[in-house]
Amino acid sequence: MELTKKEEYEIAKMVVEILDKRHKKVNCSWIVFRKEIENYCRNNSKNVRWPTLQAKIYDAIRACLDISRLDDITDEQVLRARNIFEFIKQERQVTENE
Question: Are residues 61 and 83 in contact, defined by beta-carbon separation less than 8 angstroms?
């Protein structure tokens, strides 16, 4: 069975789409913000290991933004994530002061 030019084109197009999804670039502002979260967790985790604190912060951000992968976050969502993170930091500070 031989493929027509149109079928070959469609298959090639599907392959390109699959490869593009696999090699998707991570948002630069998320990379910078992710590093800020890591630094905060490393410096401010007393009763909890820092990776656990970081995972819980990521979980809160994912839940509030209703996304499954943080690496797929948009610039607008990074701004919202920053607000969520600032709220968490504020609440942890209040708890420490009690």
Answer: no
Burial class (CB in 10 A: 0-12, 13-18, 19+), 46: exposed
Tokens describing residue 73: 């976050």
pTM greater than 0.70 (yes/no): yes
Contact 80, 88 (CB under 8 A): no
Dihedral-angle region of residue 66 (phi above 0 means left; psi in -120 to 50 means alpha; beta otherwise): left
Do residues 22 and 30 lie in contact, with contact meaning Cβ atoms separated by under 8 Å? Answer: no
Q: Distance (Å, rounded) from C-alpha 76 to C-alpha 59?
A: 18
Q: Residue 28: which of 83, 62, 78, 86 has the closest Cα?
A: 78
Give the pair of three-digit tokens for residue 42: 């490393």
For 12-38, what is each residue's pLDDT tens digit? 888 877 776 666 677 889 999 999 999
Cβ-contact 91, 44 below 8 angstroms:
no
